[in-house]
Every structure is written in structure tokens, then in C-alpha cells.
Amino acid sequence: MHKMTEPSPRLSLPGDREMVIMMAMVMALNALAIDSMLPALPAIGRGLEVAVANHRQYVISVYLLGIGIGSLVYGPLADRFGRKGVLVPALVGYVILSIGCGLAMSFPMLLALRFGHGLVSAALGVIVVAVIRDLFSGDAMAKRLSLIFLVFMVVPIIAPTMGAGVEAVAGWRAIFIVLAVMGVVMILWLRRLPETLAPADVRPLDWRTMVAGWATVTRHRRAAGYMIASGMMQAALYGYLNSSEQIIADVFDARSLFPLVFACVAIGIAAANFSNAAIVERFGARRVSQSAVFAFMATSIAQILVALSGAETLWMFTVLMMINVGLIGFIGSNFGSIAMEDFGHMAGVASSYQSFAKTLLAAGAGALIGQLYDGTTLPLAYAFCACAIIGLALVLWAEHGKLFTRPGTAAKTPF
């Protein structure tokens, strides 16, 4: 289907504002399933008799692992069976598994259900981008995606407060029931959205072609380097997500302030993504993202020094985390853009595979970072610094040692 700057008249679509909010809320179900859990982790640990405090972090880690694995398949499935043909069944799975999690009678059962929950939830972000790509192109597409992201970024700011409120009133199991209800609301709302995949654009499932595409991305030096570097930087963020509740509650004895601290850090990354959109065309993705890696490393060293000083306060920790997590906003999208530069001819397969690889690496490494928590902020600070060093080394390898170039002067040799 020829992409247009405005949607095709053949489709009876919701209004522009409704479309943006609808798609943002679909994506928000994923963020809610992660961030609303954080303040309830101690209650989950008590309720399911989790003996080791760090193990309750697995409620977050296994969900992220499910998202990583699921990211590999939903793009091709949506190209074969249609956007709604994949999204609605995924939302039905989201509802069923949310209820299952709320009814889980043991911690292993909860973890298994959370993994499945993440596996079906991986469809949500993939399909939203596909729907917007079906309907718009060029500046019109960029505008809608930017608006969707701005609405979506409100969710990490408010989700911990919502989770804490529900847990305080009705217990941790009720959070999963709230997620299920929101999933049902989205299924009903999506009745207003027609199928956006044109019949001419339906593609058969060709697993050989997909596997060949995955191998091509893996062998491509620049793509592989930036893909893995992006995963390492994202691992730092996931490590923070996994251990944030314990740090605020145990290290700083400020459990009641956790939603506020989490919101401050979320505002940092939202502001960074907004700023990145404004400056990246002027300075270039490489210069912006590589500078951010150096700044991330410097801030990580500051985190280490502050933690070692013995004088670290909650607000010192919050400000440094707000800066460092915000810097990831200048890294992730730009690294992803650079990794996709040479794959315009196979964008769907390459994007799906890169998302799978990055998220799987980030979820695994982030889980390890979380498990290193020892009652201080030092393991997280050391992990942030290590992720920056590894990320920078991978970028140097990918760019043949040349940093801060513009696309016209970057190394062209892919292998």
C-alpha cells in the first residue's frame, strides 16, 4: 500500500486525537504491568513467602524476558494475519494472564505466569508502530508517534502511585485485576479501529527468509555493535528498575517516597527523549549518543564516589539517577537508528530481531544487576559504570575507532 501523509479515505478511523490516545494506552499496558508492580514487591514477597528479598525482583525480570523473546515473532505475524488479528488475541492473553497472576498461589507459579504475560505483551508496542506506519508516512507519521510517546511517558510517572494505592486499599493481587480490567477496556475500545493492513501488503510467513535476515544483522559489524551496546545501556535501566524499590525503602528508609522518587527519574528520561528529538538532526545521532555515553560514564563515577563517601542522601541519589537514566534517553533511540541504517530493504525483520536481541540481553543483564543489590547503592553505581565502559568499547569496535562522525563521514565498511 502506498503510504500517505494522511490516512486513506477507505478506512473509517477514529479522530486523530482519539487515535493517538488509543495507541498510547495500548503501549501503556506494558509500562503499567512493570511499574505498578514495584511498590508491591515487598507485599508479594510476604504473601508468597519469598525467603530471599532479592528474588522478588524476578517478578519484573521474567516479564521483561518474555517481552524480549516475544518481540521476535509479532512483526511477521502481524504482516501475515493483520494488525488486529494479532493485537486483539494478545490483549485477550494479557487479560487472562493478569487474572492468573492475581490468583497465583506460589511464587514459581507467579513467575511462570509473568513470563507468559510478558510474552503476549510484546505484541503491544510492535503493533502500535505497525498501525501508525500503515496509516501515515513522513512527517505525519513522525508527528503521531511523537504524540503517542508523549502520552505514553505519563504512565511511568503515575504507575507506582497507582500500584501503591491499590495495594494499600485492596492488596497486591488487586493490581493484577486492575490490569485485567484495563485490558478489557482496550479490547472494547479497539472495536472502533478497523484493520489497517491492506490486503496487498499481506505477507506469507517465510521462516527461511527471516532466519537469513537475522544472520545478516548479526554479521553486520556496525549493526551488531550498536545493537549490543544499546542492550547494555538498557540493562543499566532494567537494573535500576529491579532494585529501585529496595534501595529507596532499605538504604534511605523512605518507602513512602518511592512513587515520588520514581516519578522524578521518569521525568528525567521523558525530558531527555523530548530534547533528543529537538537536537538530533542538528548534531547527528552519533555525536549526540556517543557524547551521552561519556556523560553517562562520568555521572556513574560520581555515583560511585558519592556512595563511597558515606554521606549519600536520598535526594543526591535521585538527582544522579535522574541525570543518568535521562542520558539513556539520548542513547537508546539513536543507537537503534544507527543500527538500522543499512536495512531499509528488510526493516521489519531487522527491527524485530534487534528489539529481540537488545531486550533479551538487557533483561538478563538487568536481572543480574538487580541481584547484586547488597543493601547499598554501590552495586548499581558500579554496574552503571561497567555498562558505559562496555557500551563505549562496542561503539568503538562498530565504528572502527572513529567517534563523533556525521553519517556522511562514518565508517562504511559493514564487516
Radius of gyration using CA atoms only: 21 Å
Order of helices and strands: HHHHHHHHHHHHHHHH
Q: Look up the CATH topology of the largest domain.
A: Growth Hormone, Chain: A
Number of helices: 16
Distance between the termini: 34 Å
What is the arithmetic mean of pLDDT?
88
What is the helix fraction of residues, given as a range? Answer: over 70%
CATH superfamily descriptor of the largest domain: MFS general substrate transporter like domains
Question: By helix and strand content, what is the structural category?
Answer: mainly alpha
CATH architecture assignment name of the largest domain: Up-down Bundle
How many structural units, i.e. domains? 2
Report on the structure:
The protein is mostly helical and 415 residues long. The protein folds into two domains: 1-205, Up-down Bundle (Growth Hormone, Chain: A), CATH 1.20.1250; 206-415, Up-down Bundle (Growth Hormone, Chain: A). It is 76% helix and 0% strand. It has helices at 16-35, 41-47, 58-70, 74-81, 83-103, 107-135, 138-152, 154-170, 173-189, 207-219, 221-251, 258-283, 285-309, 314-339, 347-371, 378-398. The model is unreliable at 1-9 and 409-415 (pLDDT under 50).
Kindly list the characteristics that best describe this protein.
2 domains, Growth Hormone, Chain: A, single chain, globular, mainly alpha, disordered C terminus
